[in-house]
Amino acid sequence: MALPETMRVVEITKPGSADVLQSATMPLPSPRHGEVLIKLAYAGVNRPDALQRAGMYDPPEGASPLPGLEGAGTIAAIGSGVFGVSVGDEVCALLPGGGYAEYVRTPAAHCLSVPSGLSMAQAAALPETFFTVYSNVVMRGGLKAGERFLAHGGSSGIGTTAIQLANTMGARVFTTAGSDEKCAACVKLGAERAINYRDVDFVDVLKAEGGADLILDMVGGDYLPRNVRALANDGRLVQIAFLQGPKVELNFAQVMMRRLTITGSTLRPQSDLAKARIAEELKRNVWPMIEAGRIAPVMDSEFALEDAAKAHAHMESSAHIGKIVLKV
User: Fold this and answer.
1) Domain Enoyl reductase (ER), which positions (predicted)?
2) Structural domain contains residue 1
3) Which pTM value belongs to this model?
4) How many Å apart are CA 51 and CA 67, to the nearest integer?
5) Are residues 93 and 181 located together in one domain of the fold?
């Protein structure tokens, strides 16, 4: 297909609040060895985008300075050493950055086909959350059927994905959310109990159930010692973000005496090979669930690419339930 020389983008003009996101024009990137160039239809909006915008989450070396870690569209060009995909294929992809643009390059191994029955907007909402949730809940956390699983932030993109995946795997799913409306949405997705953290202490709820076998947390702060108390003996805590900060006093005697495991990961800095392995796991184990209608992305809202600042303000208000996308 004929490609333009330039493309519309939204760039971070300086570190700051949502209004530092501004429309601009940039040269079209060219795919390097092992990469494809995707003409995006939609891009996902995620918390790490806001951290990058604030100057707290630098892109990895060689990545685009533009925000945007996921998107869906059509392959427009292919770099050397790429096999198994063709120009014109419709894909969704995990991106190293650069998703707030008309075109983006990414490793071909990080692309997955658009699941049958899903729109491009829905497909754009899959990669960042599903790569994160599957790698941390299943590959790192080792969730098994019948286990008690607690996912904090149940109404977020991560939370809605984790609830559905864990429920489909046969786990007993508990979650936290900040309103009765959000809790009701979580129960509808498959949570056995959704805890309004403004009214009820999740520690009390989980301890009454025998403790959580696995907790997925992105809150941090004072949730860290509370998570430890909420775990069952031999339980596992997987940390993926720190919305309330990474530093806290923690009694590690509990970790030792009760044989607890505390681990965590951040997706973006991992190697291309590690991300490719996650993509293969998703293709084999999760994409069939999506195509069978057993799991679906929960969509909150859609904004035009040029309205990325409004999308960020909406995300940071925490009023959303599910995923926010940009129409390119």
Assistant:
1) 16-326
2) no
3) 0.95
4) 10
5) no
Q: pLDDT for 264-278, tens place per residue?
A: 999 999 999 999 999
The answer for residues whose C-beta is within 8 angstroms of residue 182's C-beta and 6 or more apart is 154, 155, 194, 196, 321
* Share of the chain residues as helix, strand and coil, in percent rounded to the nearest 5: 30, 30, 40
**pLDDT, tens only, 132-151:** 999 999 999 999 999 999 99
Neighbours of 157 (CB within 10 A): 30
DSSP string, 197-234: TTTS-HHHHHHHTT-EEEEEES--TTHHHHHHHHEEEE
Cα separation, 112 vs 89, in Å, equals 10
Helix (H) or strand (E) holding 277: helix 272-285
41 and 75 co-located in one domain:
yes
φ, ψ for residue 221, nearest 5 deg: 55, -135
Q: Which domain-ending residue is among 247, 264, 281?
A: 264
Taking only the tens place, the pLDDT of each residue in 234-260 is 999 999 999 999 999 999 999 999 999
Q: Which pair of tokens denotes residue 239?
A: 């940390």
What radius of gyration, in Å, describes the C-alpha atoms of the chain? 20
Residue 165: domain span? 130-264
- What is the CATH number for 204? 3.40.50.720
267 and 291 in contact (C-beta within 8 Å)? no
Nearest CA to 100 out of 44, 155, 54 is that of 44
Per-residue confidence band for 2, with pLDDT thresholds at 50, 70 and 90: confident
- CA-nearest of 95, 1, 83, 94 to 34 is 83
